[in-house]
Design brief:
It is a single chain. It is built from 13 helices and 2 strands, in the order H-H-H-H-H-H-H-H-H-H-H-H-E-E-H. The chain is an all-alpha fold. The protein has a domain at 109-234. It has a two-stranded antiparallel ribbon with strand order 1-2. The chain starts with a helix and ends in a 13-residue tail after the last helix.
Length: 234
């Protein structure tokens, strides 16, 4: 399939209800409103095609950009490629669920994520912390440095309340993910969650509190400590 035929098929799969939902979360035109599950048959035909993924991502169409992440070949992507993708990720669903997810399957995931976390830029920070969440929830504990992750937990504890808006969500999720998916630091993550407490997010009258500890305790009650998923990408 070429880019034009993929775009035609995505447009045919679009639904107005989903388009409105994506837009309420920050997406903007152009987009069709395609359910991610509806993309699977086309993804099975294409498998991985980095050249096509690049063409689709460059359209600026949300659905095409999402699908680009599904068919991308992360191991063929350079740091410059990921920088270009994060530059094009104009809201958190692209940063955290397309770019960060794709980055997890590359050999430079932690290196790039570390730079994004240190950047001070909202969506880069959010994608960097999200990348670690996807990594920890997928790969064996032995692939990570316990001391590095402990330091990152301490960084979250010090900085989360003053972090950029979207970064707060991903940093909160990082505490939760370490507690659930990285067993060696479960106790430390619980202590950090308690120390951090509720985190205020949102804007104007739509402000709310998120609390990693509440979700950690729910998973502990279900006996889910040590949870790992089989796949990150669709």
């Amino acid at each position: 399939m070429d880019a034009a035929s993929v775009m035609q098929e995505l447009e045919a799969l679009g639904k107005e209800r989903l388009k409105k939902m994506y837009m309420s979360n920050g997406a903007h035109e152009p987009l069709f409103g395609v359910a991610t599950g509806e993309m699977k048959p086309m993804a099975k035909k294409i498998k991985h095609d980095q050249a096509l993924a690049e063409q689709l991502y460059a359209t600026g169409n949300y659905d095409a950009m999402y699908f680009a992440g599904v068919i991308a070949d992360p191991k063929a992507m350079t740091e410059a490629d990921f920088e270009r993708w994060i530059d094009g990720a104009y809201f958190y669903m692209l940063a955290d669920f397309v770019v960060a997810v794709t980055l997890t399957e590359s050999d430079i995931a932690q290196e790039v994520a570390d730079k994004w976390i240190a950047s001070g830029e909202e969506l880069r920070m959010s994608a960097g912390w999200s990348c670690y969440c996807w990594l920890l929830g997928r790969y064996p504990d032995s692939q990570f440095s316990e001391s590095k992750l402990a330091g990152m937990l301490e960084q979250v504890q010090r900085t989360i309340h003053d972090a950029p808006e979207r970064a707060k969500y991903s940093m909160n999720n990082f505490i939760y993910t370490v507690a659930i998916s990285f067993v060696p630091l479960h106790d430390k993550a619980v202590e950090v969650a308690k120390a951090v407490g509720p985190v205020e997010v949102g804007q104007g009258k739509k402000r709310k509190l998120i609390n990693a500890l509440v979700n950690i305790e729910k998973m502990m009650d279900k006996g889910q400590i040590g949870f790992k998923r089989k796949y990150v990408r669709c």
